[in-house]
Every structure is written in structure tokens, then in C-alpha cells.
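step 3/5: co-fold with pyridoxal-5'-phosphate
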Amino acid sequence: MKKPIPYGRQNITQEDIDTVIETLKSDYLTQGPRIAEFEESFAKYVGSEYAVAVSNGTAALHLCAMALNLQPGDKVITTPITFAASANCVRYCGGEVEFADIDPETYLLDINNVREILENAPRGTYKGIIPVDFAGRAVDLEAFRKLADDYNLWIIEDSCHAPGGFFEDSSGTKQLCGNGKFAELSIFSFHPVKHIASGEGGMITTNDKYLYEKLLQLRTHGILKDDLKYENSLSFAQGLDNVDSDGIVSKNYPGWYMEMQDLGYNYRITDFQAALGSSQLKRADEGLAKRKNIIAKYKEAFQDKDFVKGQSGIVDGHAYHLYILEVDNRLGLYNYLRDHNIFAQIHYIPCHLMPYYRKLGWKEGDLPNAEEYYKKCISLPVYPTLEKEEQLYVIEKIQSFYE
Ligand SMILES: Cc1ncc(COP(=O)(O)O)c(C=O)c1O
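step 4/5: write C-alpha cells
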């Protein structure tokens, strides 16, 4: 097999290309109508009231932490089996990250371990929880909400892997990832390996109007454009000395006027990225079905194999971003696959054992489930354009390695 097979890749159609070109020819490269369109269609897709498009998933996490007023020293709990950004957003605000262990069956943040951490600390120690819909498997946010309410915590759901995913709540109702019913804020990434690609890109969803407005402001330097909310006086805004208004000074703030009331960032997405995101979103369910199909074939091929110690498998509501096997001799398998042009990946090196977090005191043995999982996990190629023969080749090579 000549063509390299990556673990994930984008699926760009002619319609995507045409949509982007059309936007490039329009009046706006950024801050135009495509962004609001993308936000609206994404909010509809996940069932939230509001959506804020941003430059990437990491920026989304940072803005969420800021909007929730995370302060230096505040403690937040998250999982070590995630991309570093889920934890780093806490550090950007000067907060402290408490990693809790994973459930070895689901690979998700273990709610029992989180509860234990909360029970063993004085009330008020922690401010929030960042659960991750890792690999596309939706976290039971109803359970996390109950726990968070008991301890007065907020929740940021990191749903980068799970647009279109859902969990079933205690009444059997499907709850879509990012629908805003359980978490204050949810975030998504549109990096090329994700379900919806916009190059770089991210989205925050929420049902909270206050947070929504705050996010819009923080996304663009903390700048506000709203006559009713300005802090500076009208005469200052107009550039006039303190004139008593007796009909000669307009009662309106001038057209150019705006205020930077908080310290924000430029975390905006461009119009052509948003156009690509919207175009991709139209095929999100189709992509999900293809991913599920691919994973069903892997599951069938590997379910009875002795070398398989665990797998992410088929679960209702799974968004199938990744397909993970736990195997013995993972290093050997990884290298063997590479030698055969198959580029499997490891998700993830436990975040708490990254040198940066080790320097903050984390060490081997702190989170045994995550560390054991890391020794065995390998993510196999899953993406909608993976061809049948390519997948058969991957399966065959894995089997031949263990024969
Ligand atoms: C779980 C998770 N959180 C956050 C991010 C950050 O997203 P981005 O790469 O768009 O900044 C990613 C993306 O890699 C991710 O997988």
C-alpha cells in the first residue's frame, strides 16, 4: 500500500471549496456574515441557545475560563487523558489544575474520583470541573451537574471530540453534547482531524445570555459597542469638553465609539473559515455514520483477539472521533504499522506527566488508571474517506503483527 494512512484527516468536497471561494470574493474576509451563520447553524445542530465562533478550541477554553471569572489560585478538576489545552486554560488564568483519574472502562474522567477529591477538601476549594467527551464518548453530564451543584462548581464541557454525540439522561432523554442544559459552557474544535474542519477554528455553546455576551466581548479584546453599557461620559466620547447639553450636543454616542472595558484577546475566526465550517456542518451526520461504520468493522475484527486488552468500541451516543485499542507491545505495533505506512497515534500521553505539570508537583503513580491506559492505548485510522481496502489493510497488518 503506497499511500500513507493517517489516524485522522479532513474531508474537503468541491462544495466546501466553492463556498470558501465565494467568501473570498465577497466583501468580508473577517467579521462578516458567515460567522453569525456558522454560529446559528452550529447552535441548532447541538441544541444550544447561543454559540460563539472563535479562532480555535484552545482559545475557546481560555475564553470560557475567563468568562467564568477564573482567578489566580482557583482550583479546577479535569482529566489527564486529554489534549493539554483542557488543563492549560486553567493555567492561562493563573489557576491550579487538579487531575482526577479516569474510569478504565470508559476512559473518561471518573466521577467517583472527582467526588472523592471534593469530599476530602474544605468546601470552596474547587471552582469548576472540565470533563472531556474523550474520543467522542459523551460524559454523563447529568451526574456531573448534580455533583457540581452540591459543591457550587461550574462545568466547562470539552466536547472537541464529540459534535453530534449524546448521552441518555436518567429519564432516557438524549442529551446532545454542547446543548447547554448541564454545563455552563461547552467547547468544540475544528482542527482538520475533527468531525468538522475549518483549518483552525473553535466554538463555544451556552444557554446563558450573560456568559454569551461576555464571550463576544472577550473574543474581541474586551471591546464593547453598546450605547447602554458605556462607562465613559457622552461628552468624553464626543471629544467635547464637559458641555451642558442644551440642545447643541447630540444625545448619541458617535458612530466610531467603542469601549475596552475588560482585557480580552483577538480570538476571532475569519469569514472564510466560518464558511468552510458551515459547509462541513451540513455533512456532519453523514460523517458520523461513516465513522460508526468503520469502527463497527474494527470492533468485529478485534473483539475476540487475545492481544486486545480493551477497546473504545460501539456505544450509544458515541461520536466516534477515535477508535482506541489497548494492546500489549504497543510500541512494537506502532512501529510495525509505521513501517507499513500506517500512522496510528497515541491519545494521550497523560497530561499530568508532561514536564510542565511534573514541575508543578505531579508524578508517576499519582493517577494509576490513566498511566496504565497510556502504556497500552493506540488510536487506529478513522475518518470518513478511509477506504474499505485501506481499513482491511490496517486490520490485516495488526493481525499479522500479533501472529
Ligand atoms: C480534547 C481537546 N481539547 C482541546 C483541544 C484544542 O483545540 P484546538 O487544537 O482547536 O486549539 C483539542 C484539539 O486538539 C482537543 O482534542
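step 5/5: annotate
Residues 166 and 176 are 4 Å apart (CA to CA).
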